[in-house]
Design goal:
It contains seven helices and seven strands, in the order βαβαβαβαβαβααβ. The protein has about 250 residues and is α/β, with parallel strands linked by helices. The chain has a seven-stranded parallel β-sheet with strand order 3-2-1-4-5-6-7, with helices on both faces. The structure holds NADP nicotinamide-adenine-dinucleotide phosphate (NAP).
Length: about 250
Amino acid sequence: MNIEGSVALVTGSTRGIGRGIALKLAEHGAKLVINYRSNEDAAKLMEKTLSEMGVDYIIVKADVSNFLEAGRLVNEVLENFGVIDILVNNAGIFKATRFDELTWEEWDKIIKVNLYSVFNVTRWVVPHMIKRGKGVIINISSISSSIRSSKCMPYPGRVAYVASKSGVNGFTLALARELAPYGIRVNAVAPGLIATELIKNVPSLEERVKEVPIGRIGKPEEIGEAVVFLVKNDYVSGEILVVSGGE
Ligand SMILES: NC(=O)c1ccc[n+]([C@@H]2O[C@H](COP(=O)([O-])OP(=O)(O)OC[C@H]3O[C@@H](n4cnc5c(N)ncnc54)[C@H](OP(=O)(O)O)[C@@H]3O)[C@@H](O)[C@H]2O)c1
């Protein structure tokens, strides 16, 4: 898909990886829908950056773990831009808690923010994309979903996060099959360690970085570049692209 002039909705895009993805798409000429949940300072900073860049954008505060809020977000996009060409389901949270200390509430929250949100926004967007016979959906998973190979798995406390991101992978593959006949491609990016506030919650971070073959933490824009590739290449669907410094 040609990114120039397209409309891209990126959830959780005022900070971190979502911000990196949004800025890369803007560099390639996309109009942006920025979304966040509560951090007003990060939202203002993102607005300032986009205004300075001269990007055509709107910013919508909505908790995408809630189905009706996700619907309100999608409606606002359609009211403002009329179309949605690209959906990036990026919003997510991470917390490491040993399983014997993991409460139902924490499990529920992680699954809702990381997995339900992907269903919620996608479910509102897909009928619109089917009607137009085109669209690209990219879900942000995690290398920790590849539990057999990922180095981060010896560390405890990942059950809820891994379950949510494994769900995202399965969702991606099944939906890609179902939507291909309608001209809609669905892929995921599975980042390794990326420099954002989220990794402050990663236990033994210094040890983890030593396990990255390329020897450093990744940058949000490097995930943005992977998203740009997946948007542009019209023959890639049902893939989970790992971007992890060689892990
Ligand atoms: N960083 C890594 O190393 C890494 C590795 C693998 C995968 N990932 C995945 O990459 C994605 C982004 O992570 P990140 O590191 O960029 O996180 P981050 O720096 O904590 O940023 C998270 C962003 O998501 C928004 N958000 C969180 N919950 C939301 C909700 N319910 N509704 C709407 N927006 C919400 C936040 O908004 P507020 O500012 O308002 O809270 C913020 O804009 C996540 O899915 C994460 O699991 C990250």
